[in-house]
């Protein structure tokens, strides 16, 4: 009986997690899409739970998720209001996903690539100097899987994330490594976005292989340039009428 009860509790907990995660996602998309404006008050627990037909606890947990991501803030007596964009944790993987599910503005998309241009070429240069044999093998395996599955599939995009994560880890810089989740999510969602806009006109995997070969060879200058080229071409891929040139 105790075992059955424990299993029942686990199922109940899982269902509650799914509910408040789903509510957080729905509200998060509404915020990043501009449907809820900065300073706007969200429904209180009682009204929200009645309208959404969920428990007050589930709604409260969803707001905690959003608060942790900088999208809302709650204060006694005033309630929960939407935060301005400068407070959002834009590199949070969930926030990035919600932005791309709605469709980011051209300004945000280009801003994200600006960040990638600042971070990833220098990361590639450091990786060329510090990478271990195991990290080289991980990057090579990731490229092999990208080639096998293509970037048009989820498996291929997971391999792409693995490649960038291994490269950031290979920098040996603990601060840069904390960007792994955000950069990996940015890579994955910009790839999805590129396929949504139009069929890709070229194969991006050779760009990754050039970065890999430079990192493997221990050539930081070549690795930096190869990664700069990769990010530049990835941005062009998001523009339907882009003309690719080196």
Automatic annotation (TrEMBL):
SUPFAM superfamilies: GntR ligand-binding domain-like, Winged helix' DNA-binding domain
Keyword annotations: DNA-binding, Transcription, Transcription regulation
Gene3D superfamilies: GntR ligand-binding domain-like, Winged helix-like DNA-binding domain superfamily/Winged helix DNA-binding domain
UniProt feature coiled coil, ranges: none
CDD domains assigned to the protein according to its UniProt record, in alphabetical order: WHTH_GntR
Domain of life assignment: Bacteria
PROSITE patterns: HTH_GNTR (PS50949)
HTH gntR-type domain segment(s): 17-85
InterPro entries: GntR_C, TF_FadR/GntR_C, Tscrpt_reg_HTH_GntR, WH-like_DNA-bd_sf, WH_DNA-bd_sf
A Pfam family the protein falls into: GntR
Protein name: FadR/GntR family transcriptional regulator
Species this protein is from: Sphingobium olei
């Amino acid at each position: 009986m105790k075992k059955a009860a424990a299993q029942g509790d686990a199922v109940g907990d899982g269902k509650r997690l799914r509910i408040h995660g789903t509510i957080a996602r729905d509200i998060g998309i509404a915020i990043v899409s501009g449907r809820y404006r900065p300073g706007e008050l969200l429904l209180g627990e009682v009204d929200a739970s009645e309208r959404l037909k969920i428990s007050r606890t589930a709604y409260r947990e969803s707001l905690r998720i959003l608060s942790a991501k900088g999208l809302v803030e709650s204060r006694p007596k005033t309630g929960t209001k939407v935060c301005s964009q400068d407070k959002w944790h834009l590199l949070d993987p969930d926030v990035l996903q919600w932005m791309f599910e709605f469709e980011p503005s051209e300004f945000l998309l280009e801003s994200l690539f600006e960040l990638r241009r600042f971070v990833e070429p220098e990361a590639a240069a450091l990786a060329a100097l510090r990478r271990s044999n195991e990290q080289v093998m991980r990057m090579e395996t990731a490229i092999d899987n990208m080639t096998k599955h293509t970037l048009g599939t989820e498996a291929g995009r997971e391999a792409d994330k693995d490649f960038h994560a291994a490269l950031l880890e290979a920098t040996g810089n603990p601060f840069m490594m904390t960007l792994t989740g955000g950069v990996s999510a940015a890579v994955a969602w910009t790839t999805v976005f590129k396929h949504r806009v139009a069929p890709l006109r070229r194969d991006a995997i050779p760009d990754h292989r050039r970065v890999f070969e430079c990192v493997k060879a221990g050539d930081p200058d070549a690795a930096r340039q190869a990664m700069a080229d990769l990010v530049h071409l990835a941005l062009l891929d998001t523009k339907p009428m882009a003309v690719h040139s080196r």
